[in-house]
Predict the 3D structure of the following.
Amino acid sequence: MAAAVDRLLKQLPYADPTLSGGRKPGPKPGSPTAPRPGIPTKAPAEPEPPLAVWGRVALGVLVGIAMTQWPYRSECGFSLFLYLVAVLAVMITGAWGSVAAWRRRMAFAQIVSLIVVYWGIVLAAEQILPRIGYAKAEASWRCTAPPPPPAPPGGGGGAGAEGGVRRGGDSNPR
């Protein structure tokens, strides 16, 4: 049985050279993917040290926590835009740490980074969903001026000592 397997393996076009006696697999000379003589090829980069990966992950966690303490109003207008840019920075920082952890094969750092990305999505959804009509509460992208106060009943004429405002339960002056 082993002899039959060896015989079949030698027939494979890109089999181990010791089995088939042919050339090693790879691009044909002159093809666009073949390395050209005289042109340096880029060596694979070494992965970052574990401390650098944890630094990226810690930065993402700190930025994500700091977003809960956002000191400015973010209900509408330019301040809302700035808040959403900061939330995007949280997601990018989490993804940056996640890619570094993936390359280094650091599972716990990968999980923490993905939680940071998820937290950024939650922060964004909190602001975006009410504005697109998905949430029950409604909000606006632009700031609008507050409506003018309602006119007092009866035309609001008399400017007396109280400034035209009557106090008390009945409308008859005494």
User: Anything to note?
Assistant: The chain has a mean pLDDT of 79. Residues 87-142 form one domain.
